[in-house]
Amino acid sequence: MEENVLILGATSDMAVAIARQLATEGYSITLAGRSTERLAVLEGDLRVRHKAMVSCIYFDALNFNNHQQFYDK
User: Fold this and answer.
1) For 31, left (φ over 0), alpha (ψ -120 to 50), or beta?
2) Distance CA 7, CA 22 (A)
3) What is the pLDDT of residues 18-49, one digit of tens each?
4) What is the DSSP string of 33-65?
5) DSSP 3-state assignment of 5?
């Protein structure tokens, strides 16, 4: 069974390092953050370098009104 990891704030330096490590370990990854452009670059990097299954979702942690909708997705 393939395990999926959700990384919130995925464009931070720490999150990028964690995503790269998890990709080398074979996890599929869902990247979530505000900068869809930076998420797309990271997604492409993880797919090319590690053959990782990666998806991206817009998420703004400061927009509390949308947290439930994000969780429901």
Assistant:
1) beta
2) 11
3) 999 999 999 999 999 999 999 999 999 999 99
4) ES-HHHHHHHHHHHHHHH---EEEEE--TT-GG
5) strand
